[in-house]
Structure prediction request, 783 residues.
Amino acid sequence: MSKQWRYLMLGGAALVFGAHPAWAQDGRAQAGQAQGSDAEGGGQGIADIVVTAQKRAENLQSTPIAVTALNADMIRDKGIASAADLTAVAPSLSVTTSPASSTNMQLFIRGIGDIDPILTSDSPVGIYVDGIILGRAAGSAFDILDLERIEVLRGPQGTLYGRNTIGGAVNLITAKPADDFHASVDGSAGNYGYYSLKTSVDSGNIADSGLKGRLTYLHKERNGYVDDLNAPDNRDPGAYVLDAVRGALSFRTGSLKLDYGFDWSKRESYAPAFQLTVVRPDVLAYLQASSALGGNAPVVSTDRLDSIRLNQGKMTDRVIGHTLTAELDLGGVTLRSLTGFRRWANRNARDDLDGNSGLVGFTVSPEILAPPYNFNPLGVTPIDLFSTRNRRRQHQFSQEINLLGNIGDRFEYVLGGYYFNEHSAEYNPQTFLLVLPSPVPILLTPTVTLNSFGVQLSSLTDYDHYNKSAAAFAQGTYKLTDTLSVMGGIRYTHDKKHLVQRAPLVRELNASFQRVNYAFSVNWQATPSMLVYARTASGYKAGGFNARSINSGFDPESLTSYEAGIKSDWLDRRLRLNLTGFYASHSDLQLQQFQAGTGGASSITVNAGKARYWGIEAELTAKPVDAVTIGANLGYTNRKYKQFLILDPTTNQFVDVKDSARFLVGATTTISAYAQWDIADLSVGRLSIRGDYDYRGKVYYHPTIVGTPYNDEIAGAPRHLVNGRISLTDIDLNGAKAELAFWGKNIFNEKYRLFGIDFGSIGYAGNTYGEPATYGVDFRLKL
Prediction:
């Protein structure tokens, strides 16, 4: 019997024999989730979801912004465990991870996001856990236990959420301790050696003191999904081992509410397999001599490989976080405090970004690149096209104060102050090969003659970065009539950044920025089941530094958005349709311009662009009969650069490539759909079947072919993913409730590109690929 099945059976047996009828509860509709599955008045309508997108608890359908929300049941049905799994949950949302790490997430909303994992650069899409922002996108794709709700806010959120939310914000909200005692175990097993075991215990109200607690532990692991011929299965690309703990305490007494959350996780993983997609002819000719010289032959493929030879090491990510939310009811006014502390540490022993190990080639000393340009042959040596190691760490503290209240029956307001303090550091050595033409043919053996030679080089990026931000904001909503209201908000932000760098340059840089952002909307509750709104808002992404760039920094970028939307329920709440149209003007874009050469691979950041966006978004949910639920969302974003200046490395002149430049990662069109059929209530439980479809249009990984000539060749083609799930719920086991489900992801085994890097002047480019078909079984037991 395999190890994972032993774990699952032991965990299940522990709950079966420990079950007691007095503890059995379903508990599927907790506060903040769907507030009952029925419409008001007893009809079997579409459930309401309460969201806190505007700092207050509101019905999703009454919130006048473009927001998508998923409750706990939806999260479990879609198999979401971390922010990296958010693809297809909302219109115009694209998510990917970078090749150099399994926890570096790149999140795009309405075509706006950032791909550079450098710790000195901010993401324009904010990621929050229980209202506390994650300061870095790098390392943000960690598993978050006990997700109760996910809210995806589209468009700039510069008033209530602040800087670095010009594309939108994602708030991941964890479950609070339950009022009664509960214990549960969730297990899962699947192909590629996957298994997980999660146990949770709720204390309930301890001695009627108002104090409640919840503790959750998770262990999961999987072998890789591409066979590295140089490594065992548990070190193949995509393999990981994760241990995570989350604790929560809740205290209620009189007018005081306290919620504390603690999370800790350790993840050991191996990066996705990077493989060469295209190689410049002279570089390929040089590499093809490897096998004749005693090394491996180079492997280049435009399709996903099932096996590969790599030379990569283990990545370790450690995360620890604390959050404390306090609310005091002052009699008509609520004082709220949100305090957060997070620490992340990452170590990457080695990442192989060429997809080939065991290559050899004729090399010369790097002396040839500097006066007096000595040609010093080193003979036939092992060569490394590109590899990187990394040590990164980050810790942050944030404090937010809110004052929420009403003046009379028609005016409600939120006042707030915010402070954020962060320190991050990175030590990133790189090793890479430069292939240069030889003035004369080089005869190595009677059968091997080369017209080029290799120079093995290295570079280092080493820095500390300090970041402080302070803000004050206010937002109010006034009801002009019972159905018509206006909302206005304003926020002032001051940022201060400090870079201390030791390599590749020794320098110390300081910068500060300040900005005022606003939001204004008109909201009309046309009928009890239809909200119509129009909104304008501005957003601000802080300026800063790129530690890999020789320039002294970049300025903030700004975005102003105009949108109108309708949120509506029809046919006695059997049909829900939400529509949004938007237009946005984007200025001072911080554009990443990839460069690779004798100084290593770098992505410089400059304010060199302007853009405009317009688009439409639709979300549809239908419940034609009680047993069937159908849902779909569509996002279309038409994007155009108004200016895109870039330095052409061949002419050393700035050129405007606005007509040919590409937008990164975020697809023009996203479509997702699902259908769930609750087939029958059987004697042993409730049988359901669900299917999910996810479409993402073509994506690019660099903005232009200037400096990255293979950008079009490594682009990600449109992809179609289909997932499925069959579940049996509400199984009664001696008073305990059980669930059993069989699932499959990417069940048609679509081969699609996850990310791409064009190394430009070094002469090659490559891709990582998404996961192949995976399948497995889940079970849950709850006391």
The first helix runs from residue 3 to 18. The chain has three helices and 39 strands.
